[in-house]
Amino acid sequence: MTKVAFCDSTSATASPAWTSSPTSWSHRTTRTSSTSPNGGTTMSANATSFRITILIPFKAARNLKGHTASPKMAANPTEVTLRQGGDTPVRKLWLVFALCSLAFLGGAGELTVAVSTEPPTLDPTSDPAAAIDLILHHNLYECLVQVGGSGEFHPQIAESWEVSGDGLVWTFHLREGVVFHDGTPCDAVAVRESFLRAMAPESLNPHPEYFADIAEVEVVDVRTVRFLLARPVPYFLAVLAQADSAIVPVKPRTGRPLGECPVGTGPFRFEEWRPGDRIVLERNPHYYLPGVPSLDRVTFRFIPDDAARVLALRAGDVDVAVDVPPQLAVELQKDPDFTVISGPMNLVQILAINNSRPPFGRLMVRQAIAHAIDRKKIIELVSLGFGTPIGSHLTPGMPYYVDLTELYPYNPERARELLAEAGYPNGFETTMTLPSNYEFHVRTGELIAAMLAAVGIEASIQLVDWGTWLERVYTQADYDLTVIGHVGRLDPALMLTGYGAERPDYYFRRGWRNGELERLLEEGKTCMDPERRREIYVRAQRIIAEEVVNYFIQDPHRIIAARAGVEGLAVYPLYVLDLAHVSTG
Question: What is the rounded distance in angstroms from the CA atom of residue 270 to the CA atom of residue 261?
Fold first, then answer.
């Protein structure tokens, strides 16, 4: 039975009250909250406000945007109970009808999203889990700058910035009126403290190397902060746009760790976390952009199974399903009641080749592998069209990307010729080690194995769990071939570090080095000239692709499905679900 509760908004004060229990953390105003027998939460105000409980028949409840009901309700009539000052009944028929109308309109600003993974913590500055970014980055946490759908940078907490000619001084001017959700100002002092926290030796930030070149952070005035760098960092905006650089209060008024009670400056603020079930965000009434967000509340439900997420969407239990597999997305596309949004997820799927193991140390063998694989067929059969072919270790959405997919076109006959020239006229046997928890990579690997077999390379499939893959393949480079994905960064300097001089034994390039490439990558880290950077990374991509250090397959598309009427959803270069401008119809 669904209970929809309304409280007199005048009874709530502006000061937040924080409560906790052993299994959940929640942020609310001074309204009281109690758990109903069916597991829902009924909110009530003080004795002078109205408390309304509305029991709605199942058929009608299905029409409530943001609310669903159990089929058990079908036999129950609509029931409205009004109380004032405790148990005194209020018998004003016009009010009953007015509030019933509000019940059907009040959910218009609510959205329920099904996600696959529950975050281990709610602090992206202390844990690398992508699930944190998906739910909270852009929604609850913000950075000085943000990246747009095409990879361009826009103001966020900072309204403008400038950089010195030598690239060593970056000055950011903050928006006026930005406050954290706990009421403290997000000014230059707060920004400085947030970065000092990330840069501290004891910092738990998952990417401390991002801040290694920051020599000092200065407060110029209340709305101006200046970064002094030890060397030029042309990709500094890319660093600042990642969730690792989220601006957070060092000592939030909640008195709780950010991992339990997150506090940011975003369009939504934290309401509740029920571990194992959901995270709830509510509209930030003090957000600095007028009219943003459109939604009053967002609930993220944790549904690990792909099919179960789609079933929940079809049943009306959720409004949006994230990371829908291609085979299910194709079916949803045929249904006018749903919308499918997809776009490149900025991920490089590769066939990693262990160059340190014979016969893969021979270029002709690697070239034969490249000619034996049909990218388009993989995208057609595995991704069902939801993928973009790539020919380098950058994605099409990244700066300086160059299309090298035709460097080694699909040509099985040429593959056989190269194997014969390399001394393997009858092919050879090898092993492909795949992480069993990633069905997408397993299916890709199986198809590649079949393509290799067609030219004489017999690759037996070895499935291992994720922990074993990380230990054997990623850490020890104990493998022949593997298929995996590398999350794209916002700049080539961050994306290509695995090929640099500092990582000669990295798993996907072990046994292969190229002095020219290493020099180019080192220059690219500090070069402030955009045209020279373009030359550097175009050449770098070509070296890696020509040498077939790895074989680059596709940038898979992230697929989001929503019920008809949900507007404003988009796929971003970062793993985020930005709901600031999403609305329900």
Answer: 7
Nearest to 51 by CA among 89, 18, 77: 89
Residue 185 has what DSSP assignment? B
Residue 129 in tokens: 């889990």
In 3D, which of 304, 276, 318 has the Cα closest to residue 39?
276
CATH of segment(s) 130-245: 3.90.76.10
> Which residues have CB under 8 Å from 125's CB, separation 6+?
197, 198, 204, 205, 243, 244, 245, 246, 248, 258
Q: In one letter, which amino acid is 259?
A: G
The C-alpha atoms of residue 166 and residue 475 are separated, in whole angstroms, by: 38
Residue 247 · residue 188 · CB < 8 Å: no
Closest by alpha carbon to 97, among 61, 54, 156, 152? 54
Helical (H) or strand (E) element with 115: strand 110-115
Token pair 């852009």 in the structure block, residue = 138
Tell which residue, 548, 549, 490, has the closest CA to residue 148.
490
Q: What is the pLDDT of residue 151?
A: 80
In sequence order, which residues have a C-beta less than 8 Å from that of residue 309 and are 6 or more positions away?
A: 114, 115, 116, 303, 318, 321, 322, 323, 324
How far is 399 from 88, CA to CA, in rounded Å?
66
- Which amino acid is located at 94 in the chain? W
Ranges of beta strands (E only) in 308-390 are 320-322, 338-344, 347-353, 387-389
Cα–Cα distance for residue pair 524/231, rounded to 1 Å: 12
CATH top-level class of 347-557: alpha beta
Q: Which residues pair with 54 in a beta bridge?
A: 4, 80
Which pair of structure tokens corresponds to residue 541?
A: 């991509």
Which residues make beta-bridge pairs with 25? 20, 273
**CA 396/CA 258 separation, integer angstroms:** 35
Domain spans in the chain, listed from the N-terminal domain onward: 4-110, 130-245, 263-341+559-584, 347-557
- Per-residue pLDDT band for 65 (boundaries 50, 70, 90) equals very low
Assigned token pair, 70: 């159990």
From 279-288, 369-378, 462-471, 544-553, the region with the lowest mean pLDDT: 462-471
Question: Residue 185 has which token pair?
Answer: 């100002």
Summarised one tens digit per residue, pLDDT across range 558-574 is 999 999 999 999 998 88
What is the token pair recorded at 236? 């500094």
Query: Across-strand partners of 28?
Result: 17
Of residues 574 and 339, more confidence is placed in 339
Instruction: Decide: residue 135, CB within 10 A, 0-12 exposed, 13-18 middle, 19+ buried.
Output: buried
- The whole-angstrom separation of Cα 456 and Cα 372 is 10
* pTM recorded for the entire structure: 0.74
SS3 358: coil
- How many residues are recorded in the chain? 585
Task: Tell me phi and psi for residue 561, to 5 degrees.
Answer: -120, 140
The CATH-assigned architecture of domain 263-341+559-584 is 3-Layer(aba) Sandwich (3.40)
The three-state secondary structure class of 35 is strand
> Judging by beta carbons within 10 Å of its beta carbon (0-12, 13-18, 19+), is residue 82 exposed, middle or buried?
middle
> Which among 353, 348, 555, 546 is positioned nearest to 457, based on CA atoms?
353
Mean pLDDT over the full length of the chain: 84
